[in-house]
Write a structure and sequence with these properties.
By secondary structure, this protein is α+β, with helices and mostly antiparallel strands. It is built from 14 helices and 18 strands. 32% of the residues lie in helices and 22% in strands.
Length: 493
């Protein structure tokens, strides 16, 4: 059988690592530990194939960290959103639907990992499908399945308790609070200056989505109504997804004083870290979700990358390779934007821009970073779009405005952000832009040597989706499923 040949090849390649893992079966949690010893040869082979493949992935350093493996279930990976969707009841149909989502997340991650393996270690993605389905079918028969999943599906946060303990977080946060307050004041001042209509002191390049027709608000509402009733997730084809994302894509106005201000596509060159090709402006996009009042709301995410944040002085702890801006739109069921938020790909500078359909809620702990709101927006009408003004060099967001839809700008290409998990190498093969620690190599900032007591490893470095801690004071993640639910009272209708 082809399956047995592939399994044998993987086992030969990673025999030492595999034997170590098999010799330590006590550390492998059930039901995987049971499957490794199963009398059913097909079940046992699948469990061993997953273990051998994981050993190969880890040995090659190509582990993908966008989603978290579920201990004992090698064919499942969890996200903060999916963990929040965990069925409260044991309804078999609902539980299976939810588990299939976790399996698809694993399949997507493994497709990248297997493609990123060295050529001699390639494995067949079809075996992930076959073996995942087999193990899921068997595990659904486990009477203790719900208890095991409840304990293992939640995703650990991106903070290091060890760093906070060693760094005396309780004391160190006091001066950090002053720094956060200063940044808030400076950001508000930048927005106020922009609102006064003052012309930029620098040349401005304007970029708008190109080439695809927008949906009407009624068409968007119809798409959102197609979400499956169980989990609220959309099932759209590629064209529908692209058109939905174009409909809400912002216009970027970038102050441009050098090549470091020109957006582009991430590529692998001859270096250990990815570089930016600025021949064509590119915005990476993804469709994701949040929870509010027991409902699933659609979110659209847009990321523009820049080649670097250049130093403003001889010693600039914020300067470094690559930089960017992430912009997110949360939609009401009727297709109208409710609230916007933004950060840099490091998880830094998280800001919220609610519309009049989103009322801010007070922070439970005034000492934590909760929801910095430099501006509130009017309701965005069907024939309007968001305009973002971005500063030269620092790429700080200077202003957010609402304007009529216009095409008088240089068109940017929109690419699926998932491609960054496996990009072609110049000499053949593939590699993710993210290392196995979820960071982008070559983007380290000097601030990491000062900010580590806040518990964020390598603060300032660019990092993979699912790993963005966005607050130095307290705990907050860009992909927290209850991020908006805790901070705003939304008017959904």
């Amino acid at each position: 059988m082809k399956f047995n040949r592939v399994r044998a090849a993987v086992l030969r390649i990673v025999a030492p690592a595999t034997l170590l893992l098999l010799g330590a079966c006590a550390t492998v949690q059930p039901p995987q530990s049971q499957h490794l010893q199963a009398a059913d040869a097909d079940l046992r082979d699948c469990a061993q194939w997953f273990q051998a493949t994981d050993a190969a992935v880890d040995a090659a350093g190509v582990r993908d960290r966008e989603a978290s493996p579920v201990a004992g279930f090698p064919y499942l990976r969890s996200t903060r959103f999916l963990a929040a969707l965990m069925p409260a009841s044991d309804t078999d149909a609902l539980r299976r639907t939810w588990l299939e989502q976790l399996r698809q997340v694993d399949l997507q991650a493994r497709a990248a990992e297997l493609r990123n393996l060295p050529a001699a270690q390639t494995a067949d993605i079809n075996q992930v499908q076959r073996c995942g389905a087999l193990l899921l079918k068997r595990d659904l028969q486990q009477p203790e399945l719900s208890a095991m999943l409840a304990a293992r599906v939640p995703v650990a946060d991106a903070y290091s308790d060890g760093l906070r303990i060693v760094g005396l977080y309780g004391l160190a946060r006091i001066p950090f609070a002053g720094g956060v307050a200063q940044w808030h004041a400076e950001a508000r001042a930048m927005f106020e200056n922009s609102r006064k209509g003052e012309a930029s002191a620098h040349p401005v390049e304007r970029y708008a989505p190109a080439g695809i027709a927008r949906y009407s608000r009624a068409e968007v509402a119809a798409l959102l109504k197609r979400a499956d009733p169980a989990l609220g997730l959309l099932s759209l084809n590629a064209d529908e997804t692209s058109r939905l994302l174009v409909t809400y894509a912002p216009v970027f106005e970038v102050e441009t004083t050098g090549e470091f201000d020109r957006p582009g596509a991430l590529r692998w060159g001859g270096a250990r870290h990815p570089v930016l090709d600025t021949q064509m402006p590119v915005v990476y996009q993804r469709l994701t979700y949040t929870r509010y009042g027991g409902r699933t709301l659609v979110q659209l995410v847009y990321t523009m990358w820049f080649g670097e944040r250049p130093a403003d002085k001889s010693f600039d702890i914020l300067a470094g390779g690559l930089d960017g801006l992430v912009w997110r739109v949360t939609l009401a069921p009727d297709g109208e934007p409710l609230v916007f938020d933004t950060m840099h790909p490091c998880g830094c500078y998280h800001m919220f821009f609610p519309t009049r359909r989103a009322a801010a809620q007070p922070a439970p702990d005034p000492g934590d970073e909760w929801a910095f709101i430099p501006a509130t927006l009017t309701r965005v009408q069907e024939n309007e779009q968001i305009r973002l003004r971005i500063a030269t060099r620092s790429h700080y967001l200077l202003d957010v405005g609402v304007q009529p839809v216009a095409a008088a700008a240089r068109g940017y290409e929109m690419l699926d952000e998932q491609i960054l998990r496996s990009l072609p190498l110049p000499g053949g093969g593939y590699r993710s832009i993210y290392d196995a620690d979820a960071l982008v190599a070559g983007t380290e900032r000097g601030e990491r040597f000062l900010f580590w007591p806040m518990g964020i490893p390598s603060a300032g470095a660019m990092r993979q989706w699912g790993n963005h801690a966005t607050a130095f004071l307290g705990r907050r993640h860009f992909d927290d499923a209850d991020l908006l639910e805790r901070r705003f009272r939304l008017t959904l209708h």
